[in-house]
Design goal:
The structure is a single chain. This protein is α+β, with helices and mostly antiparallel strands. Helices cover 29% and strands 24% of the residues. The strands form 2 sheets. Strands 3, 4, 6, 8, 9 and 10 form a 6-stranded antiparallel β-sheet that branches. A 4-stranded antiparallel β-sheet has the order 1-2-7-5. The protein is rod-shaped, with a radius of gyration of 52 Å.
Length: 243
């Protein structure tokens, strides 16, 4: 029995070292990050087909560029047209609100029926006039009233010819509607001498006004039948004599 045990020997272990397994040889493992792979180009294999595809791509890009440019120009034209329409509408609004002041002098020569000389300011425009300043000067001196020793009537006529009844209206600070008028002064004429003196003084009488529209566009005029001059605003100086 002991002899049989001695004869039984374990197999000897191999002293050879185990060879490491390369990852590339193992199926299902990812290659190392340092390895590069060259992929074939995406070509159909047909040279003419590849050329046609490339040319088509270039052509489509060129057409898209042309369409974009034309679209941009069309939008620019639309913007310009809209701006022109806005400007035209603004001009139309201004034209529909434009006031135009003028002087109207009316003489009644029939002395038998108590004649008169009437001076009025009339708005011949299509919009209301906001009259900020209206002044009357005789020989360069401003007057704001026909009455009293410093009044316009005293400068025009001697006391013996001055009428007792006279009508006048304040003009500065009023709003005069379109196609309407406001009486400035009305002097009764009771004798030929009164009428003669008034006619003689007429060249020395000057008037000036500054007025605005409802859109706050302002003009100055001295009623010389010339076009009123546009101004930024109508300024009234302190102590200025206005009618």
């Amino acid at each position: 029995m002991e002899d049989g045990i001695e004869e039984l020997k374990l197999p000897e272990q191999s002293t050879e070292t185990t060879q490491p397994i390369v990852e590339e040889e193992m199926p299902g493992l990812m290659p190392e990050s340092g390895h590069t792979h060259i992929h074939p180009e995406h070509e159909s294999g047909n040279r003419w087909l590849d050329v046609i595809v490339a040319v088509s791509v270039i052509f489509i890009s060129a057409v898209s560029l042309v369409v974009s440019i034309n679209h941009g120009r069309t939008m620019e034209k639309m913007v310009e047209q809209n701006q022109k329409m806005v400007e035209q509408n603004q001009k139309l609004v201004v034209a529909n609100t434009l006031p135009l002041l003028d002087i109207d002098v009316e003489n009644n020569m029939n002395l038998k029926k108590n004649g008169y000389v009437r001076l009025s300011v009339k708005n011949n425009g299509v919009g209301p006039a906001i009259i900020d300043r209206f002044e009357i000067r005789y020989k360069g001196v401003s007057y704001n009233s026909p009455f009293g020793s410093g009044g316009l009537l005293n400068a025009l006529l001697p006391s013996a010819l001055q009428p007792k009844l006279i009508a006048d209206s304040s003009v500065s600070g009023t709003i005069l509607p379109a196609r309407d008028s406001i009486r400035v002064i009305e002097i009764p004429v009771t004798s030929p001498q009164t009428l003669q003196l008034l006619h003689a003084a007429e060249p020395e009488i000057t008037m000036k006004a500054c007025y605005c529209s409802v859109l706050e566009e302002c003009w100055e005029t001295n009623f010389d039948h010339k076009r009123p001059q546009p101004v930024k605003e109508c300024k009234v100086e302190p102590g200025e004599k206005l009618w």
